[in-house]
Write a structure and sequence with these properties.
Elements lengths: L2 E7 L17 E7 L4 E6 L2 H16 L7 H14 L8 H20 L4 H5 L6 E7 L3 H6 L4 E5 L6 H17 L4 E5 L6 H10 L7 E3 L7 H11 L3 E4 L5 H11 L4 E2 L8 H15 L2 E2 L7 H9 L6 E4 L11 E2 L8 E3 L9 E2 L5
Helix pairs in contact: 1-3, 2-3, 3-10, 7-8, 9-10
């Protein structure tokens, strides 16, 4: 097969899960081969990433062979190198993520295999998952035994609200449940230490995204001070090159690459391999979505997939038809070839 066309679009989002932001600027990438095989990918970077895909990346991709996993790896290296003057991190790598995932989708369909099985014939089928959001009672009712609570710093009252929300989660989900806090880079070292003391009785599994990704040395120092609570992060880091800096500074106990941002499955596999050497756990950001889920199923990532659930009453766009749904705190990949999903044409 050879790549015949490359096209990215920014979907017509109408509803989004309540979170830090109104949406995550996710784009859809469609690649078609000369044999008529079509692959779909999900990337970040919004309309700026769409321009990169439809401009530079499309121009240099059409005509390249796509017949093996090594072809995908070579394409990744080629696009990364060609985009170095404006890339390496951020929007260019988010655009590359969407392309990379499209290529895996094509190859899986061509070989009539799910991506996880394409990567690892002995892949996992069922993964445990955790709910991200604030509707604790609903998560407990639907069988979740782990919750991550969004909790940006909003002043001194934030300590009290952190205590009350985590205590509620512990009560609803049980003494063995994992309870986590995601603070989206809104704490500093002093706040982190105060929170660690205030929440000691709850038993927090991890604090996520405490400082910015530019504070890797400080994170490494702070990590030792909050033990045994784990320090988690990495969703705003890109490629294995970026995670090499995280490794060097020992910034996190748990790495959280986002497969639709960090460079796709290709980058994800390289990051996981580095983490194995580093003896560090990997829990992909938004890992319950099809792309992260197949990486978890095929690799030595932790058996722990994030689902951004919102609330019982919230509406959200069902962009991807065929996405697996959780059941009693677990989620399964399907036997469908590729990633097993296609976008709703009404949203494109």
């Amino acid at each position: 097969m050879k790549i015949a066309s490359v096209k990215a679009v920014y979907p017509k989002y109408t509803n989004t899960v309540p979170s830090w932001r109104t949406h995550l600027w996710q784009i859809v990438v469609r690649i078609e081969t000369d044999t008529g095989q079509t692959g779909w990918g999900f990337g970040g970077g919004g309309k700026a990433a769409v321009e990169i895909v439809n401009g530079h990346f499309s121009e240099i991709l059409v005509g390249r062979p796509l017949n093996s996993l090594s072809d995908i790896s070579e394409i990744w290296d080629y696009l990364y190198t060609e985009s170095i003057p404006y890339g390496r991190k951020g929007i260019a790598i988010m655009a590359l993520s969407g392309i990379d995932l499209s290529l895996y989708d094509i190859l899986g369909k061509a070989e009539k295999k799910p991506v996880a099985k394409l990567l690892n014939p002995s892949n996992k089928q069922t993964m445990r998952c955790y709910a991200t959001g604030v509707d604790t009672d609903w998560y407990a009712e639907t069988g979740f035994t782990a919750q991550k609570i969004p909790h940006r710093w909003a002043g001194k009252d934030s300590i009290e609200t952190a205590v009350s929300s985590t205590e509620a989660a512990r009560s609803a989900l049980g003494s063995e449940a994992e309870v986590m806090l995601d603070v989206y880079m809104s704490w500093d070292a002093d706040v982190t230490i105060q929170m660690n003391i205030a929440l000691q009785h709850v038993g927090i599994h991890w604090f996520e995204d405490i400082l910015t990704p530019d504070d890797l040395q400080e994170l490494g120092k702070l990590r030792e001070q909050i033990h045994p609570v784990n320090m988690a992060g990495g969703e705003h880091e890109f490629t294995d090159h970026g995670f090499a800096e995280i490794s060097k500074n020992q910034s996190y106990d748990i790495w959280q690459p986002d497969i639709t941002w960090c460079g796709g499955i290709t980058a994800g596999l390289r990051i996981v391999e580095m983490a194995i050497q580093d003896k560090t756990a990997v829990v992909p950001h938004r890992g319950g979505e099809p792309w992260g889920l197949h990486l978890i199923a095929a690799s030595q990532c932790e058996d722990f997939a994030e689902l951004v659930m919102g609330t019982r009453s919230s509406e959200k766009d069902s962009l991807w038809i065929g996405s697996p749904e959780p059941e009693n705190g677990y989620i399964q990949i399907t036997d469908a070839p590729g990633f097993g999903v296609e976008p709703d044409a009404n949203l494109l």
